[in-house]
Amino acid sequence: MNALLVDDSRLARTELRHLLRAFPEVTVVGEARHAEEARTQLRELQPDVLFLDIHMPGETGFELLASLETAPHVIFTTAYDEYALRAFEVNALDYLLKPIQENRLAAALAKARAKLTAPVPALAPAAEPEPEEAAPTPLTEQDQVFVKDGERCWFVRLADIRLFEINGSYTQIYFEQHRPLIPRTLQHLEQRLDNRVFFRANRQQIINLKWVESIEPWFSNTLKIKLRGGPEVEVSRQQSVRFREMLSL
């Protein structure tokens, strides 16, 4: 996998190059300081993946992409989280916030690898059944997820989310003082979340165990859990049994 690094900061390029040494399948074929230099490098080197900063002197990373007839797979690298929505609108593979964490870089490269190694679909008979939908990719607590609610959007680490709660046909997310709604079911989220960190307390709620402040016995041998920053969550009888078994010595 050949990569081109585009960033006006020499230090940022050096740090990213250093991080990429941990991934032997990646070869850094070039670096560029601004959009014009990047265009030349793209024509000459034909990289598979473009690590692209957004704020650069002259043209922004978005303006560079808009000027290209074709582009490699793009992974944005930036210190600003407010452009996440726009990044995914231009089909970026990922959006890495500086300072870049190695586990986030690994996840981004996994996406690039999957794109680059995906087989070209062959012509199939008309009666060929459609393939089953792939299982959702599991997430770690250090992964960042893009959340949009109306006109507002966030890029938030899963470790900072203390509660997922059903709200009508949506799921409400609790982090900091925010309570955005996302069009996802708890069942879908449960399949993607690390069950060592996120626990299904009942039919309506999934809690982050690392945000538990206190636990007390409740009615009918159930438990009540208080999360730091609130709220209190009543654990169902069946899940109370599982909670005790899971966290006992």
Automatic annotation (TrEMBL):
PANTHER family (UniProt xref): STAGE 0 SPORULATION PROTEIN A HOMOLOG, TRANSCRIPTIONAL REGULATOR-RELATED
Transmembrane domains' residue ranges: none
Protein's name according to its UniProt entry: DNA-binding domain family
InterPro entries: CheY-like_superfamily, LytR-like, LytTR_DNA-bd_dom, Sig_transdc_resp-reg_receiver
Taxonomy, superkingdom: Bacteria
Domain (HTH LytTR-type): residue spans on this chain: 147-249
Domain Response regulatory as annotated: residue spans: 2-113
PTM annotation (4-aspartylphosphate): residues: D53
SUPFAM superfamilies: CheY-like (SSF52172)
GO MF term list: DNA binding; phosphorelay response regulator activity
Assigned keywords, A-Z: DNA-binding, Phosphoprotein
